[in-house]
């Protein structure tokens, strides 16, 4: 068995914990990757899924954190997390918050009318399903899902109407229990897309 990363880096569990807790950007990045792993282990164990893969994070031409083959068809799923500072508990396991749904790097995107924008925003149709990690809603690993086509688009007034309709909003409201267009049933959405 290989050494743990803590042993490899010669850092104690307490030192690592303090480092993560005192650096929100590091905490967000680590939690994001953990969420992808939890999504894989919790949500993708299904007899109708014949393959799963993860694209290279450095290949900016491909958006999506997991690619799956479901009932013979390929789907791309983008996994995002809640913004912790937006989370509010409204009742017994009733929550609301917002998920940041954009890319980490800027890139130039081209729209049907030929205009271009340098943006971090994700495009309508760039992936199939958004999976929002709802761990911040009470410390449980669970996910809320929405089809790309049902996500709200940008309302930024400096963009043209075509650009606004083609760009997904950067902050999207999420609730628990999920409210439409979100659901906690990934396979219902996959079947709808089929």
Explained architecture:
The chain is an alpha+beta fold. Helices cover 25% and strands 31% of the residues. It starts with a helix and ends with a helix.
Tally of DSSP β-strands: 10
Q: What general form does the structure show?
A: globular
Q: β content, as a range?
A: 25-35%
Rg, rounded, reads 18 Å
Mean pLDDT over all positions: 92
What structural class should be given to the helix and strand makeup? alpha+beta
Order of helices and strands: HHHEEEEEEEEEHEH
Poorly predicted ranges (pLDDT <50, ≥5 residues)?
none
- Main-sheet strand order equals 1-2-3-8-9
Tags for this entry?
194 residues; alpha+beta; 5-stranded mixed beta sheet; 3-stranded antiparallel beta sheet; 31% strand; globular
Overview in brief:
The protein has 194 residues and is of the alpha+beta class.
Indicate the topology.
Layout: H1 5-9, H2 13-21, H3 24-43, E1 49-53, E2 66-70, E3 73-81, E4 88-91, E5 94-100, E6 102-110, E7 116-121, E8 129-133, E9 143-147, H4 161-166, E10 171-176, H5 186-193
Parallel strand pairs: 3-8
Antiparallel strand pairs: 1-2, 2-3, 4-5, 5-10, 6-7, 8-9
